[in-house]
Design a protein that fits this description.
The chain is an alpha+beta fold. Helices cover 42% and strands 17% of the residues. The chain contains 15 helices and 18 strands.
Length: 455
């Protein structure tokens, strides 16, 4: 093991020059979000020599290097050939460095069950966390550096097989790139809250905060690829719409800001139209359009449209009934489902529509035609949404407004009044993407939102 200090830093970067490395780190505030954290130490494994290096910033056991951790990590990744990490999104949140390969994504693609966040630990770590309690933030300072190094070696041994098997394809590049990087940016933006209301509404979860910024955490390693979103015991993907808890979420720009929710209307039927090459105009009410065929009449009542929505859902999610196969939309959907199912049985996989991620027999248990179709649909939903959020993030790069929450068929933006008036119009145009209808709601908090209409 080599401890890297200020004097030996140049020789260290020379040692790892053009070499493959495995990198990990320990954070200052145990249990806190990586977007709101800092680094105690960085550990590097030079793979071809099995040498371990430690760069220490804050721990009392080793000499402290007089450099910033982000600067050090940038130099490490620039010097190396390939840098491997576990959970690039968390890594990005704390270092902002994109030039790394996520081993969890590689395992997720391969269908390994260990692609969930791996919590490897020494007995000392387990005992210390139990003794000090989950709310004690300084745990990593208390644990001796020798035990942190032992933990790092365990982690490297666990992932060594994946490093040896590692290979890149376009699907991996999309997951390791746009998906991870887009969600990291949303996480780092955080959501502003009314502290008193937040503590009151979420006190049953044992949560109490003293700063007005909270963070979400997206998990892309789900069976369908649709991200879940939970942090600190709060499920941000399913905030209660009825108990008032959403009123705790407000704009960081105070009176000069608004929360804007942009919601896709009939998202799945429009996505399916895209998949089957069926032209549907974005401003068309697809339930009214299909209802004309269901009820054999041109003018539909609101009750007819409601019934049409139920019929559409029943057929898309429960299997298309024979009585609707004469409708061209459902005929094409049925042909698409049949084609994908035959391909899956012949080749053992299908590719998702946008990012070409392979869904294999390892990703879907007890597959059948409709289940496979629903996996593809949820994957397409995620991929279209991520593409558009990435475009919005780029558009907002030189503005104050920020994307703060993504929930399947909607995004929440914290809009600053200092940004130009056409900002919201431009964002909506990006969301519509010439194919998806979007509704907009605005409010001073996430609970009291009213629909707004604009071109």
């Amino acid at each position: 093991m080599v401890v890297v200090d200020t004097n030996s830093y140049k020789s260290f970067t020379k040692d790892i020059n053009r070499s493959d490395i495995f990198v990990d780190y320990i954070v200052k505030k145990h249990g806190c979000h990586t977007a709101d954290n800092s680094v105690i130490s960085i550990f590097i494994k030079k793979i071809n020599s099995n040498e371990t290096y430690v760069v220490n910033f804050l721990h009392q056991d080793f000499p402290k290097i007089g450099m910033d951790s982000k600067t050090v990590m940038e130099l490490i990744t620039q010097s190396s050939n390939r840098a491997f990490v576990v959970d690039k999104k968390r890594f990005l949140n704390i270092f902002g460095n994109k030039n790394v390969n996520d081993l969890l994504i590689f395992e997720f693609q391969a269908g390994y069950t260990s692609a969930d966040e791996v919590e490897l630990s020494t007995n000392y770590h387990t005992f210390s966390k139990y003794k000090l309690g989950s709310n004690y933030r300084e745990t990593n300072y208390v644990i001796p550096m020798s035990k942190h190094i032992e933990w790092f070696e365990l982690k490297y041994a666990h992932f060594m097989g994946s490093i040896e098997e590692f290979e890149v394809d376009n699907s991996y590049n999309q997951l390791n790139g746009i998906i991870t990087e887009t969600l990291s940016e949303v996480e780092c933006n955080g959501i502003y809250v009314d502290v008193i209301k937040f503590n009151d509404y979420f006190k049953d979860k044992g949560i109490e905060i003293d700063t007005p910024l909270v963070y979400t955490e997206y998990n892309i390693f789900t069976s369908t690829g649709r991200p879940s979103n939970r942090f600190n015991k709060i499920n941000y993907a399913a905030l209660n719409k009825d108990d008032g808890c959403r009123s705790a979420f407000v704009s960081r720009f105070s009176e000069n800001g608004l929360l804007i929710s942009l919601d896709y209307s009939a998202y799945h039927p429009h996505i399916i139209a895209n998949l089957i090459n069926y032209k549907v105009e974005p401003d068309l009410n697809i339930y009214e359009y299909l209802g004309r065929s269901y009820f054999n009449k041109e003018t539909l009542t609101p009750e007819d449209i409601k019934k049409s929505k139920n019929i559409t859902f029943q057929n898309l999610y429960g299997g298309i009934r024979d009585e609707y196969l004469h409708i061209d939309y459902f005929k094409k959907v049925s042909e698409y489902i049949d084609h994908r199912w035959k391909f899956f049985n012949k080749h053992g996989y299908v590719e998702t529509p946008v990012f070409k991620r392979r869904i294999t027999e390892n990703h879907i248990s007890d597959p059948n035609p409709n289940k496979l179709f629903n996996y593809l649909l949820q994957a397409a939903e995620t991929e279209f949404s991520i593409q558009n959020i990435d475009r919005i993030n780029r558009y907002l790069r030189n503005k104050k407004s920020k994307v703060v929450l993504y929930t399947y068929d909607s995004i929440l933006i914290d809009i600053c009044g200092d940004d130009k008036k056409d900002t919201l119009t431009d964002i909506k145009t990006i969301m519509v993407d010439n194919q998806f209808p979007v509704k907009c709601h605005a409010g001073k908090n996430y609970d009291e939102m009213i629909e707004i209409k604009f071109n």
